[in-house]
């Protein structure tokens, strides 16, 4: 049996020396009145607890994946395929044609010195067989056979009438994962690149690879960070932009960064990062820090740093993250700067939460947001990428029971899910490079940040997945803040919307859907790179480009693919475009505000990067 703990009840781990002033108290009262989460009953009966305990125990052996959900997808596929003789005949015909094609290719390769045209080309993102060694006998026949087999299984798991779309996606995904395990590139016996390197080094690559494997396994088992991450330390060469923590509650620390220009734009910037990782992805090194870039452009910048929840924070919900995260930070920014307008920037989950807050503020007549910038953030979740594979009632119930036992979703469980989504890049290519080639991928600041994950509270993560991913409540007008629903179409602040071309977490087509829901001016930017590297795209970063176009609120809608075709790429970083856009929506420059405000109840508490960023 568990009981919800009030958010304002400070535990020693979250204690704060700050004592709010009367003005701050009145601001908090307003925030609580409008956006405070409803009371919940978290009582669990003995019978319910027994069910949850069993599923939590099973989850430890399945990496959090529901075997029932997988079995349901398999049954849907197998039963519909069993009653589709036409599809079966088609698959037999395809197998025969592919076998004949491969046999003809192999015969030609064996009897002619020049290799013939391949039977099948790999997908554009598949670089496993791109080297010259794979184009000679017998390796070309081996990898062509694998690709034809992969194509046949794609045909076998898709296009079956009667299957639900999600079950079809799951079966296609699972079959691809299983086949990737047996890719010829993963074995020294069938990988010519590895064989050549082994012969050249006399086998020392395999010796080093074994040492790398043992070291990685030891670090993983002991909970240590990856090799090389120790060279990157928060406060030393990561998250080094100077500033002060000017507010702290149980959920956030608010960092105000020191100005670097004599004058600043009057409207401050409040950045709300995702809480799935530490905030400093937007303040990495001195050269690739968005915080430093914005302060150098003459902006006053504030950043939310989320605390790392543990089992005692199990009952923190989405409304807590909004009221004591976004709204509390907004109150503090306004009190310190004495400005009525704020530029708000949200990244990933933080952008989704900021969108909900902006919609609630618009609904209630709170006009403090001057602009809204959303970085790789979704508001409609109908095309949320391969993460949707893990989102249905069966899987979420299984995941919730696992979190119920722990009180949170662990970092290793989240990392495993994201690695599955990009197994070729994050699992198998690393195995080949580090363990068969015996090399080490040099650690960089972005990789070190990626290893510094946080946990997710039970209630919040369950609400997030059910209300947004599963039910799509926000996009469809059912998401409630307080006692009333909120909607994207109420937002009137101009929006700077950023998607990334290779995003596997928030696919850019999904991010683009904000244009379908909104009733405001939107400037959409599509940048090269993925979910993280596409956002951390500082000026001077090589091989970067972006597309940008403005859409007025009363303009006709343009589909994403047509938008991309009609919008020419621009070489370089998109950060200057954001700075220019923010400047355009700002007033005349003025003197920088002080760091913190003693008289308004927000005294500086400590130097940036604060204390919450160090929580393990």
Shape: globular
- Helix segment count? 20
The CATH topology of the domain at 243-382 and 472-614 is Rossmann fold
**Strand residue percentage:** 5-15%
Helix content: 40-55%
User: Taking all residues together, what is the mean pLDDT?
Assistant: 88
Detail the poorly predicted runs: 1-33
Structural class: alpha/beta
Count all strands and give the number: 15
User: For this structure, what is the CATH class of the domain at 243-382 and 472-614?
Assistant: Alpha Beta
Whole-Å distance between the termini?
A: 27 Å
Biggest sheet architecture: 11 strands, mixed
Radius of gyration: 26 Å
Strand order of the biggest β-sheet: 14-13-12-11-6-5-3-4-2-1-15
Any idea what the CATH superfamily of the domain at 243-382 and 472-614 is called?
A: Alpha/Beta hydrolase fold, catalytic domain
GO molecular function, one term: acyltransferase activity
InterPro entries: AB_hydrolase_fold, PHA/PHB_synthase, PhaC_N, PHBC_N
Organism: Pontivivens nitratireducens
Domain Poly-beta-hydroxybutyrate polymerase N-terminal: 48-87, 125-294
Question: Which features would summarize this protein structure in a list?
Answer:
single chain; 616 residues; alpha/beta; Rossmann fold; 11-stranded mixed sheet; two-stranded antiparallel sheet; 11% strand; globular
Topology overview:
Layout: H1 22-35, H2 46-62, H3 67-82, H4 85-111, H5 139-157, H6 165-181, H7 192-201, H8 204-222, E1 243-248, E2 252-257, E3 269-272, H9 290-296, E4 301-306, H10 318-337, E5 342-347, H11 349-363, E6 369-375, H12 393-406, E7 408-409, H13 411-421, H14 423-436, H15 445-450, E8 456-457, H16 458-470, E9 480-481, E10 484-485, E11 495-500, H17 508-512, H18 514-517, E12 522-527, E13 545-551, H19 560-566, E14 570-571, H20 575-584, E15 606-607
Parallel strand pairs: 3-4, 3-5, 5-6, 6-11, 11-12
Antiparallel strand pairs: 1-2, 1-15, 2-4, 7-8, 9-10, 12-13, 13-14
């Amino acid at each position: 049996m568990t009981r919800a703990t009030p958010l304002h009840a400070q535990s020693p781990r979250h204690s704060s020396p700050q004592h709010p002033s009367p003005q701050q108290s009145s601001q908090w009262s307003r925030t609580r009145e409008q956006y405070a989460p409803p009371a919940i009953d978290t009582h669990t009966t003995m019978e319910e607890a027994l069910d949850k305990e069993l599923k939590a125990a099973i989850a430890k052996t399945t990496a959090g994946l529901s075997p029932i959900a997988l079995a349901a997808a398999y049954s849907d596929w197998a039963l519909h395929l069993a009653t589709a003789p036409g599809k079966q005949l088609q698959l037999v015909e395809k197998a025969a044609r592919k076998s004949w094609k491969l046999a003809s290719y192999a015969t030609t390769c064996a009897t002619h010195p020049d290799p013939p045209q391949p039977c099948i080309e790999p997908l554009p993102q598949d670089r496993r067989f791109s080297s010259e060694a794979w184009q000679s006998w017998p390796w070309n026949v081996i990898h062509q056979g694998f690709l034809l087999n992969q194509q046949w299984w794609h045909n076998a798991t898709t296009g079956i009438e009667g299957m639900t779309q999600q079950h079809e996606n799951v079966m296609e995904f699972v079959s691809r994962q299983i086949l990737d395990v047996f890719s010829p590139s993963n074995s020294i016996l069938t990988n010519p690149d590895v064989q050549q390197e082994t012969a050249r080094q006399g086998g020392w690559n395999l010796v080093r690879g074994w040492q790398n494997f043992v070291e990685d396994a030891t670090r993983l088992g002991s909970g240590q960070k990856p090799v090389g991450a120790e060279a990157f330390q928060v406060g030393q060469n990561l998250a080094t932009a100077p500033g002060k923590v000017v507010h702290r509650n149980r959920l956030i620390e608010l960092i105000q960064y020191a100005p670097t220009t004599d004058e600043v734009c009057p409207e401050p910037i409040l950045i709300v990062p995702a809480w799935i990782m530490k905030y400093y992805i937007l303040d990495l090194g001195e050269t690739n820090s968005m915080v430093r870039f914005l302060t150098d452009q003459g902006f006053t910048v504030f950043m939310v740093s989320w605390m790392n929840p543990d089992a005692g924070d199990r009952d923190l919900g989405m409304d807590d993250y909004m009221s004591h995260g976004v709204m509390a930070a907004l109150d503090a920014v306004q009190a310190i700067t004495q400005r009525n307008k704020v530029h708000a920037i949200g990244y990933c989950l933080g952008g989704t939460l900021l969108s909900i807050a902006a919609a609630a503020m618009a609904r209630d007549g709170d006009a403090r947001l001057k602009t809204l910038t959303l970085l790789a953030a979704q508001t409609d979740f109908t095309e949320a990428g391969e993460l949707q594979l893990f989102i249905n009632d069966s899987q979420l119930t299984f995941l919730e029971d696992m979190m119920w036992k722990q009180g949170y979703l662990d970092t290793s469980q989240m990392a495993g899910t994201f690695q599955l989504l990009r197994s070729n890049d994050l699992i198998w290519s690393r195995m080949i490079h580090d363990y068969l080639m015996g090399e080490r991928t040099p650690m960089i600041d972005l990789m070190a940040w990626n290893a510094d994950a946080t946990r997710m509270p039970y209630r919040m993560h369950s609400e997030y997945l059910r209300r947004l991913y599963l039910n799509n409540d926000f996009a469809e007008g059912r998401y409630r803040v307080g006692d009333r629903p909120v909607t994207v179409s109420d937002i009137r602040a101009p929006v700077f919307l950023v998607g990334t071309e290779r995003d596997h977490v928030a696919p850019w087509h999904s991010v683009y859907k904000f244009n379908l829901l909104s009733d405001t001016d939107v400037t959409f930017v599509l940048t090269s790179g993925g979910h993280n590297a596409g956002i951390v795209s500082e000026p001077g970063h090589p091989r970067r480009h972006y597309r940008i176009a403005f859409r007025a609120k009363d303009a006709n809608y343009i589909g994403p693919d047509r938008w991309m075709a009609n919008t020419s790429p621009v070489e370089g970083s998109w950060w200057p475009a954001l700075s220019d856009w923010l400047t355009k929506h700002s007033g005349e420059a003025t003197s920088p505000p002080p760091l913190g405000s003693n008289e308004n109840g927000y005294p500086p508490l400590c130097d940036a990067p604060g204390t919450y960023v160090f929580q393990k």
